């Protein structure tokens, strides 16, 4: 659980789980929720993004799976301080910004592929080349859809993070 601070006299906390790799313990993958198959899949998505961007300092073994991720259990830390809440809020907003760019960058291509999917449901004949292009586009479509879902989830959490920052930026009333 990550606490972002006080909002309207109430402590605002998010359930978050962190994972790492035995080969690279310095890599921390943080996802919303508690340890579950779904959370591990989200962490695997983050891991794949790191690999694709060339930011993973180690090679993973063939067949590496979500069950091999190691859950990071943090020692009790004083997360109630205002500085920690502000830092967490900024991290949540930074994540939102990154996801927004990713969604924007892939939206046009994904929507083109989505339109092409309709040909599968029509009586119109298609070439093998069109089907091959469509199959190749499914990965783009899947990545966009997943990024869009993560963006929507992050946006909800970022609303509360924005409130934490707004509260911290308020000038003291005289």
Structure characterization notes:
- With 174 residues, the chain is α+β, with helices and mostly antiparallel strands.
- The chain contains 3 helices and 5 strands.
- Helix content is 54%, strand content 13%.
- A hairpin with an 8-residue loop joins strand 3 and strand 4.
- The protein is flat, with a radius of gyration of 20 Å.
- The two termini are 35 Å apart.
**Uncertain spans, ≥5 residues at pLDDT below 50?**
75-79
| Strand runs, count | 5
What Rg, in angstroms, do the CA atoms define? Answer: 20 Å
Q: State the major sheet.
A: 3 strands, antiparallel
CA(first)-CA(last) distance: 35 Å
Fraction of residues in helix: 40-55%
DSSP strand content:
5-15%
Enumerate the strands of the largest sheet in spatial order, edge to edge or round the barrel: 4-3-5
Secondary structure topology:
Layout: E1 2-7, E2 10-14, E3 16-20, E4 29-32, H1 37-52, E5 70-72, H2 82-117, H3 128-169
Antiparallel strand pairs: 1-2, 3-4, 3-5
Q: Any key phrases for this structure?
A:
3-stranded antiparallel beta sheet, 54% helix, 3 helices, alpha+beta, two-stranded antiparallel sheet, 174 residues, flat
